[in-house]
Design goal:
Strand content: under 5%
Distance between the termini: 173 Å
Number of domains: 1
Structural class: mainly alpha
Order of helices and strands: HH
Helix content: over 70%
Number of helices: 2
Shape: rod-shaped
Number of strands: 0
Largest sheet: none
């Protein structure tokens, strides 16, 4: 009977231990495990959310870089076009200026030529009057015969 009583006392003490464990130890352990499970789930959700945000940010950064490259390319193309236009404008202006200078030079050359011709005519008329005076043996007055000298000069 000793054996039965010992088993009975061990069973009661075991039951009491199980009841105390279930009453005082088990609920805080279960609560701690639940809190830890919740924190782990929140951490995984946050990690997933962070991963998605990182992927979205990466896509957004790639899109912004692509747009920036396109915009930079457009600006470079526009600058190249504008520089070409400016070069063409400068060439056209230089061409116009050179044509103007050439026309001016030609005009001056023509004026100088006409002036030189007039001077030569005048000198020729004087020489002709002087030569005619020597041939005729008397002095020919250029002012008296001015009409004749002008007509001679214009014929020459």
């Amino acid at each position: 009977m000793n054996l039965n009583l010992t088993i009975f006392i061990q069973m009661v003490s075991f039951g009491l231990l199980v009841w105390l464990t279930m009453k005082f130890v088990w609920p805080p352990l279960v609560e701690a495990m639940k809190e830890r499970r919740d924190r782990i789930a929140e951490g995984l959700a946050a990690a997933e959310k962070g991963s998605k945000q990182l992927e979205e940010a990466s896509d957004e950064a790639e899109r912004i870089l692509r747009e920036a490259r396109e915009e930079a390319s457009g600006i470079i193309n526009q600058a190249n076009r504008r520089s070409s236009e400016m070069i063409e404008e400068a060439r056209a202006e230089a061409r116009r200026e050179s044509e103007r200078l050439v026309a001016n030079a030609r005009s001056q050359i023509e004026q100088e030529t006409e002036r030189a011709r007039g001077e030569l005519r005048r000198e020729l008329a004087e020489l002709t009057a002087l030569g005619a005076g020597q041939i005729l043996g008397r002095e020919v007055d250029a002012s008296a015969h001015e009409d004749l000298v002008k007509r001679l000069a214009s014929e020459l």
